[in-house]
Design goal:
The chain has 21 helices and 6 strands. By secondary structure, it is an all-alpha fold. The protein has one domain. The longest helix is centred in the middle third of the chain and has 56 residues.
Length: 511
């Protein structure tokens, strides 16, 4: 491959960034431009034919469906909780736990969003937490940025360890071999995420005000995750860490709460817990579907999947037959959001708490928020899948590795971030580049587990500023026209975190 091929491979990605950030295009418009550019470049320069492009889009549709299922489920659940007043109750409970915005941010934007990632994942933290942040007084843009940055460290061992399992499968290495260094890098990312969340909330003043509780919560979450991983509890390491971190955060807030006025004597849990029962119901359903094995197996019985046939490219290369990622119709995270929404709707109706005309209002709000986001995600994922299957993403990664040379540890996390940015998933990035990173580490004489840890933490942080996830989060707070601004802010914090982690990782390879 020539330098022209490398530049062309980067063009669709660069086009997306320039149009969204530089020209303030919506995700749907910029995604369409990038998608068409990827199709044309794959066809003209990367030996693709119409059969290849057709099946690449089928694959992309199933990948997009994984995200869209969550979007529509989250919008359904959000509009219902808004209609019955649960969102207002949640915000009031947070205010009563602590009137301090820095503690509210640490508890909800960081610890709770990380907890949601550990039990659900796949975009649920941003979709659920962003509307709550708006309800307690944050502007919509900050409300999207806070949970995005806040949960960035918890992805690898979240979702029952899906991303970790993907890396273990891709490299063929045992969990005990690659996990310790990985938890160290993710632990550092946890502290950085806490710092960034405070900075987003209020700059230096918020950092000064929230530094000690942030350090305590970060030490708790990262420490418990590390100990859990060393005990072999890979699938629930993030869950245990974030759950205890939440307890520490709420305890700190209540111990340091200044009691002012008659409302200070009202226990927020007894006054508001009944009103926020939909969120408790959501957690119960997620836990049940995740840990009651017979139930999980029953829900996953019906899966939609397509088989991709063997394809011969125009240069004679033969691509093996395969299957797209199956969509679990009843066990997906999106389905769990729909179950919670329908149960909330039914119980609220029986209680007489559903306002007149709420059904129409819920449906109209869902369509208005979800339609543009759906188009954006379809085109973004179509572009990413076309580039991945045509070898364009791999070409970019190899180019970065060749340029880096002896400074490869500084580049490794950005390769992970590239894969996550393109696919929207830490898991996919580990599948895509895990073996590649392993081979480069062996060739250059670096410790393989450390390079994989550096790669993985880049992929974890990089996944939160994937355009598809940002479009999803923006749709829940009415920011469909400002997705480029959200992308710019989240990417800024993400790249700062990855740069710091890259330098620390490089220093660790020198020890």
């Amino acid at each position: 491959m020539t330098i022209i091929d490398t530049l062309l491979a980067a063009l669709p990605l660069a086009l997306i960034v320039v149009l969204m950030i530089g020209f303030h295009w919506s995700g749907a418009k910029a995604g369409a431009a990038g998608w068409l550019a990827a199709l044309l470049i794959a066809l003209v320069r990367f030996a693709a034919n119409m059969e290849f492009l057709f099946w690449a889009q089928i694959d992309a549709f199933f990948r997009a469906a994984q995200v869209l299922y969550i979007i529509w489920g989250a919008l359904f659940f959000f509009r219902i909780t808004e209609a019955i007043g649960a969102l207002r109750a949640m915000s009031e409970m947070l205010r009563q736990i602590s009137p301090d915005r820095t503690l509210q941010v640490l508890i909800m934007g960081w610890a709770f969003s990380s907890f949601l990632q550990s039990v659900g994942g796949f975009g649920v933290p941003m979709a659920v937490v962003a509307p709550i942040m708006v309800s307690i007084g944050f502007d919509p843009l900050s409300a999207v940025v806070l949970p995005a940055v806040g949960h960035s460290w918890s992805i690898t061992f979240g979702s029952l360890g899906a991303s970790f399992e993907a890396l273990r499968t891709a490299t063929g290495l045992e969990g005990a071999v690659i996990a310790p260094e990985m938890t160290i890098m993710l632990g550092i990312a946890c502290f950085l995420a806490g710092f960034c969340v405070l900075w987003v909330a209020g700059g230096r003043a918020a950092v000064r005000a929230g530094l000690w509780p942030m350090l305590l919560i970060a030490l708790t979450m990262s420490g418990v995750q590390y100990l859990s991983v060393r005990a072999g509890l890979y699938n629930i390491a993030s869950m245990l860490g974030t759950l205890i971190g939440l307890v520490i955060g709420v305890t700190w807030a209540r111990l340091h709460k200044e009691k002012v006025g008659p409302e200070a004597n009202v226990d927020p849990w007894t006054k508001n817990l009944v009103a926020v029962w939909p969120y408790v119901l959501l957690l119960i359903i997620i836990f049940g579907a995740s840990f009651i094995r017979p139930l999980a197996e029953y829900l996953d019985r019906v899966q939609i999947q397509a088989a991709i046939p063997q394809i011969t490219l125009t240069n004679g290369q033969v691509l093996a037959a395969g299957k797209v990622k199956a969509l679990s119709l009843f066990g997906h995270a999106g389905a769990l959001l729909f179950y919670t929404g329908w149960l909330t709707l039914l119980i609220s109706k029986l209680q007489g708490r559903l306002p007149p005309g709420a059904g129409k209002k819920i449906g109209t709000g869902m369509v208005r928020s979800g339609w543009t986001s759906t188009l954006g995600i379809l085109t973004m994922v179509g572009m990413a899948t076309t580039m991945e299957r045509a070898g364009m993403v791999s070409l970019l990664a190899h180019a970065m590795a060749d340029i880096a040379g002896g400074l490869y540890p500084l580049v490794a996390p950005f390769i992970g971030a590239l894969g996550a940015f393109m696919t929207g998933s830490n898991t996919n990035a580990n599948v895509l580049f895990g073996a590649f990173q392993q081979q480069v580490a062996q060739t250059l004489g670096y410790t393989v587990p450390l390079i994989l840890a550096i790669h993985n933490v880049g992929a974890s942080v990089g996944s939160v500023f994937a355009p598809a996830k940002i479009i999803m989060a923006c749709s829940t707070v009415g920011l469909t026209a400002r997705e480029g601004e959200a992308l710019r802010r989240i990417t800024k914090y993400g790249l700062v975190m990855i740069s710091i982690l890259a330098i620390l990782g490089w220093l660790m390879t020198r020890l």
